[in-house]
Design a protein that fits this description.
Structural class: alpha+beta
Number of domains: 2
Strand order of the largest sheet: 4-3-7-6-5
CATH topology of the largest domain: Beta-Lactamase
CATH architecture of the largest domain: 2-Layer Sandwich
Order of helices and strands: HHHEEHHEEHHHEEEH
Strand content: 15-25%
Number of strands: 7
Distance between the termini: 97 Å
Number of helices: 9
CATH class of the largest domain: Alpha Beta
Length: about 290
Amino acid sequence: MTSQSAPSLDEHTGDKTADTSRGRAAGSLASGLDILELLAREAEGLGVTAVARALGLDKGNTHRLLRVLEERGYVEQDPTTKGFRASVQLISLAGNLLRGMDLVSVARPVMRQLSDETGEAVHLARRTRAGGVYVAQERQKGGIVTVETEIGAQPIIHATATGKALFCLATDAEVSRVVHEPLQSFTTRTLTRFEDLLADLRRVRERGYAVDDEELNLDVRCVAAPIFDLYGSPVASIGLSGPAARVALSQVDDLGQHVRTAAVRITQELGGHVPAAFACRPPSSSGEGLTD
């Protein structure tokens, strides 16, 4: 029987050295990430000393890490102030990640929850160069009468809550590229003047959600809210539709808050953010801009 020899001193030393190297590498990585997160919050930038002091790091090591990050393009140094700040490389990195995320997959559980909470059919639309397109829908089961949208159909921008939500932050020129005068009338409630549409878009920004008050189809009301990307631009919308008898004007604001909450949740899960220009005023419970 052969005996196993005990590890040599050199082997023990090698293991310890490897562990120490791995520990140092992990520590450097953590410190580098701490620096990136700090600089991402400091738009004006920080000098080496300020970074080291804020994070409790050694100044020399901080300087080395900043130079590595600068070489990789994640931070840049102001030649005048000598301060470091995060670079647009971070936005590019985040953009690559976000492009790999599927809107429908992220939104589907939120849509299902919204439909369960409200009892109405919920739809998801994506903004396109020509306007928008419906990409997903969540129906109520059990024989409940709901208003449904056709996947692949394009929302009428001036006559649907979806269209208004998608273009709520658009400039007048951007709106005019997708909405052509004279505005087509679908019901007696359809907005047919361009200036009335622009005023309605302002109300969308103020209350945080858009409303179709029987503007496309009589006896049907819809509520929708925009979903924003990394830059705070509307890229999609989530909304619900129901018979006017069930989606009464007295319920529109409550439903609007549900839809708005769902849109914010999808926005956050996609890595986007709601811009300051949106919902700049507390929502009104009086149904401002809506009439029986």
